[in-house]
Amino acid sequence: MADNEKLSMIRHSMAHVMAQAVLELFPGTKIAIGPAIENGFYYDFDLPRPLTDADLETITAKMKEIIASGVPFERKEISRDEARKLFADQPYKLELIEAIPEGETISLYTQGSFTDLCRGPHVKSTKELHADAFKLLNIAGAYWRGSEKNPMLTRIYGTAWTNPKELRVYMDYLADIEKRDHRKLGKELDLFSLHEEAGPGLVYWHPRGARIRQAIEDFWRSEHYKNGYELVYTPHVGRSWLWETSGHLGFYKESMYPPMEMDKSDYYVKPMNCPFHIMIYKNTKHSYREFPFRWAELGTVYRYEKAGALHGLMRVRGFTQDDAHLFVTPDQMDDEIIEVLRFSMFMLHSFGFEDIHAYISTRPEHSVGDPEKWEAATAALKKAVEKEGLKYDIDEGGGAFYGPKIDLKVKDAIGREWQLSTVQFDFNLPERFDLTFVDKDGTEKRPYMIHRALLGSLERFFGVLIEHYAGAFPPWLSPDQIAIIPVGESAYEYSKNLEKRLKGEGFRVVTDLSADRMNAKIRNAQKMKTPYMLIIGEKEMAEDLVSVRYRGGKQVNGVKTSDFISEVHKTIDSKEQI
RNA sequence: GCCAAAGUAGCUCAGUGGUAGAGCAGCUCACUCGUAAUGAGCAGGUCGCGGGUUCAAUUCCCAUCUUUGGCUCCA
Questions:
Q1: Domains plus CATH for chain A?
Q2: Nearest nucleotide (CA of A529 to C1')
């Protein structure tokens, strides 16, 4: 049997053991479902009272008892009527029984005092479960059957493994995630903040965060020009006419900030950049000879995200998309998609993401646009992904109503997937805004429109970068690249001049002239994860040397300053990590 | 929006029905230092905001905002 099947059986069985423990401790509890999931399991309960973290300990202790008792998991098949009778006081189970198709077997699994409606499979006995290889992690709310129209149940999440060592490895992984948390690092490294009193979900980029953003934006802009894009700037608000035409007021009004009334018109803050780029397109009549158009903008948009959905930089209400819109003729489509994908891969690689996976989403049930166009566009997406040699999955029917798309997800340093790039066809807006171009034969035709974002939003991308690098950015992105640390006051003057010299090279440099001892200065620079620390004392001053302490702890003393400068240039230019 | 928990100094956190405390950071002074914290002193808080109970509320209750963990959502 494959290891993951075994693990999944252990986890599923653990869920049953937890349900037994909860029922014994909280009589009258109604039970819902309890599957194995990635790394663990959960079970949903309708409890007589809310749970506290202390209850998790009690439940854990009870589970250990059940595991120690070594009871078998016994399977039994019964009729639908028997099942109804058995679960007469378990309304959620009754609902599940009714949902089982006629003719399908209904099976039960029993261990000790607990019987659950369950397809299985399970381990043979609780002897196969390890009392020290599981941990209950948290209590959360979850809608019955995942619908917000249904009652909210209490879900207990746990993790389970075959042995304590595996559990420890997983717990270490969770601790690593906590250490990398961009919200925590954002504070510690003084990168950004959010202010509840000034409006939730709105990001303040501090000088050190802004330096990173500048580095990203500078690179982004110059690469866009190199890759045949034009950069545009568009307004932040637009009259309701724009949003009525685009259809946003019809479909997405709930997610837009409410209107501002002025001169008897309603103005809306933009939730997307596309209608503005379309206005530029519509400004003149276009010939096929001008195509393709590639217009990019770091466009700041505002969306009303539900209060409970906000999360640090990852889900915010105001964010800047690295947006671009391509207007192409049908015969340019294939090449343009290939080019966008290649560009996208280049950008992601530049930021240190190597493991990239593509997801293609195809036409959903309700869609606009000619099915043949959908076919052609989807084929173009597949062709591009294959040409790039990317691994990909297809989400049949998972596209937006207006067109198929490719999403790229990257794996970070600890294996978590983040969606960054997206390339989407749009068969809706060109119709709604009646976009045309004059083709070779003199007739007016409809251009293809493609939306794409390479980094997604700068806020979210920043969050992902922080977590990927755990705050230790490669020098080209580091807020401070070099920290100068004079050994004593006698080196202050020299250090200030060295700072000037290094800044002249274009480096981001800070000199620590505080009253702290040298050791404390090193500690502070280290805590800020500054890549290079230069220790300056008598020896260095006398011979134009620097003593380099690298972020990793390595020291190289007596380096010629000019050698250090060329080394840093090389590292920054190549975007290497140190 | 829903379920649950939390909100005390800039940060991390302790604490109590009789209007608050630590460490770090900050400021001042002294020390002038060779690879992860020099020492002493000072200052800093309407205990998220609004009601209620009480002689008295930061503490108990209600409402509200925000945050956290999830759920739902994410054009």
A1: 3-180 (3.30.980.10), 187-234+272-469 (3.30.930.10), 236-269 (no CATH), 482-573 (3.40.50.800)
A2: B36
